[in-house]
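can u do me a favor
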């Protein structure tokens, strides 16, 4: 058992007690702390492996997904995936990808599994975990996107800045008729109540009785989970890389909000390169065959872009819920740094995980606003911004292009997929 104190005085101090850690990892390997603009929950564990708020190597996202898959299967880390997260190893992306391609676990009919990721933060992580499997499996993510003429499962994330989640599962999908279990993937469990609300609906709609809550960090006490298990007669496992609990939070004076604000400005023009093809989003159920086609398309897109292999001066950005495919393309394009826009409001401050940021009009049709954090001055020469063609909003993208050019990037290209 170890104790870590995160101090962002005078705004926030949080004490975390870690009771169990897998693969030799510690809290500092996985996240840092920031202060949220949210009265429901003042703190934010800012992941160092998701490719959301912080720039990462795409390899870190894949390694985190692989470690969660190994933990779920009860297998050891024989290939040093944890060393990537600890910063002790940086294998070439194509070598790492080859290891993943040849180590996928095949699931049979009696273990037919739906992997499910929570928008917006955990869609990339969940897909990375799901991609460690093949056979009788499928993947889907929740979304904030509202699709007219459909009847999704709808549930709330009570502490979130954007509370309403939608899950577009087709009740008539033959995969779900024989689905045996669901693995719900999030970056962090504080209470686990959001996932438990969805479990209740999935059990009612499909009669599924086996569930797993999968997360990088589990800080829940398990009481609500055990109550629902008993009430519904179901099984809910919890699999995480770290398990502990928050044993103290002190909040104080918040700093002045120091976000750069580009909203309602004309922005700057950007180059746009449409690359049409099979959609790469996962808001509807994707079988293992469909996931394989998506992976192949990501490799094909990297070849179409024909970028120089040395990507240290190139920043790749995803948008909103669109994380995994852009991260994979960034890896195939030479391993350049990657992260993504978010609708999560955070206070940039010295000593925090978040030290700088920009606010702009939404880059897509489902976000109320866009944020991007921790882009340094004068480090990158160009940016590739990956967007979904059907949901992009040019005004927000022009504002983001202006901000990136102000950070020293000579060229900003929007890749519409």
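np, heres the sequence
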């Amino acid at each position: 058992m170890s104790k870590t104190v995160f101090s962002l005085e005078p705004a926030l101090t949080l004490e975390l007690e870690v009771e169990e850690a897998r693969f030799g990892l510690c809290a500092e390997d996985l996240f840092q702390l920031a202060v949220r603009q949210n009265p429901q929950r003042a703190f934010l564990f800012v992941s160092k492996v998701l490719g959301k708020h912080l720039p990462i190597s795409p390899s870190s996202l894949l390694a985190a997904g692989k470690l969660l898959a190994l933990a779920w299967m009860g297998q050891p880390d024989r290939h040093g995936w944890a060393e990537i997260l600890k910063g002790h190893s940086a294998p070439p992306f194509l070598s790492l990808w080859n290891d993943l391609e040849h180590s996928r676990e095949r699931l049979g009919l009696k273990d037919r599994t739906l992997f499910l990721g929570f928008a917006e933060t955990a869609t990339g992580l969940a897909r990375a975990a799901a991609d460690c499997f093949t056979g009788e499996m499928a993947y889907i993510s929740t979304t904030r996107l509202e699709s007219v003429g459909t009847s999704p499962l709808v549930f709330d994330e009570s502490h979130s800045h954007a509370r309403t989640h939608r899950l577009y599962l087709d009740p008539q999908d033959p995969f779900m008729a024989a689905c045996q279990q669901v693995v719900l993937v999030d970056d962090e469990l504080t209470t686990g109540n959001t996932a438990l609300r969805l479990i209740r609906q999935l059990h009612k709609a499909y009669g599924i009785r086996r569930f797993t809550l999968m997360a990088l960090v589990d800080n829940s006490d398990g009481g609500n989970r055990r109550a629902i298990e008993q009430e519904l007669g179901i099984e809910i496992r919890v699999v995480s890389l770290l398990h502990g609990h928050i044993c103290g939070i002190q909040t104080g004076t918040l700093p002045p909000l120091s976000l750069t604000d580009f909203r309602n400005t004309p922005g700057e023009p950007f180059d746009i390169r449409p690359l049409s093809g099979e959609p790469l989003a996962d808001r509807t159920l994707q079988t293992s065959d469909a996931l394989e086609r998506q992976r192949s398309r990501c490799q094909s897109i990297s070849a179409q872009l024909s970028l120089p292999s040395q990507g240290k001066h190139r920043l790749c950005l995803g948008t909103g819920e669109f994380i995994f495919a852009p991260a994979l393309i960034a890896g195939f394009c030479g391993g350049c740094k990657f992260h993504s826009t978010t609708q999560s409001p955070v206070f940039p401050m010295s000593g925090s995980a978040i030290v700088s940021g920009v606010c702009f009009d939404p880059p897509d049709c489902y976000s109320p606003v866009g944020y991007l954090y921790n882009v340094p001055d004068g480090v990158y020469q160009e940016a590739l911004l990956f967007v979904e063609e059907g949901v992009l909003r040019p005004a927000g993208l022009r504002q983001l292009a202006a901000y990136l050019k102000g950070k020293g990037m000579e060229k900003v290209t929007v890749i519409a997929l």
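The chain has a mean pLDDT of 93. hope that helps!!
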